Amino acid sequence: MVDNNAWALRAEEYLRRNWRTAVQRALDSVSSGKWHPNGFIVFRLGEVQDDTFTGSHRVHIWPGGIARRGLPGHPTIHSHDWELQSLVLSGHYSDVIFGTSTDAPPLLAHAVRYGGAEGDSISPTGGKIQLVRQEHRSVHVGTCHHMDVGVPHETVVPDEETVVTYVMMGPRQADGMMLASPVPFSVTSFQRPSLSVDEQLYASRTLRATLSTS
User: Fold this and answer.
1) What sign does the dihedral 179-181-185-187 (CA atoms) show?
2) Domain count, the chain
3) Label partner for 148 (CA 20 to 30 A): which of 53, 56, 77, 122?
4) Is 8 helix (H, G, I), strand (E, B) or coil?
């Protein structure tokens, strides 16, 4: 019998065992941070080839002490074509999980293409999806949360809340990636912004505080 939770359990073990090293790596290379279009900071730490699972790991910061530099109009409801396990290191993470419902108003589905020669691109597919809120998750420090492939969700961390997570992403699958919005959104050749000097200082302070208090 295949254990559908095997990847998540092994990823969580890795996250709990290595989070201090990961945060220190982000701190040592703070100038490499990029702004995600949905307004949080991403430190990509590369691929993980453990004895029992494969993934890529990152440190994320939702800043509460500076303005978040998102991409205006970027859809916030989305799903991934990878499995995800995330450990909350600081603050209070929250999100909303959606399910489909024929009674819900239709949203426009969008496709994403990552890492082209000119950057990322997003465009409506012409398809529609009807979503209803199923669960509002509230995740505390020291707790992991999981997201399976293809599950629509939306992060709802308040602007005044600072949250730091250590994330493991599984191998990409053939499908599952989707953005949903009530209005069409299109962007081509989008390059994720680097952190300004002041933003790097903020991120450094946040990462140091995470190491000292967690």
Assistant:
1) negative
2) 1
3) 122
4) helix
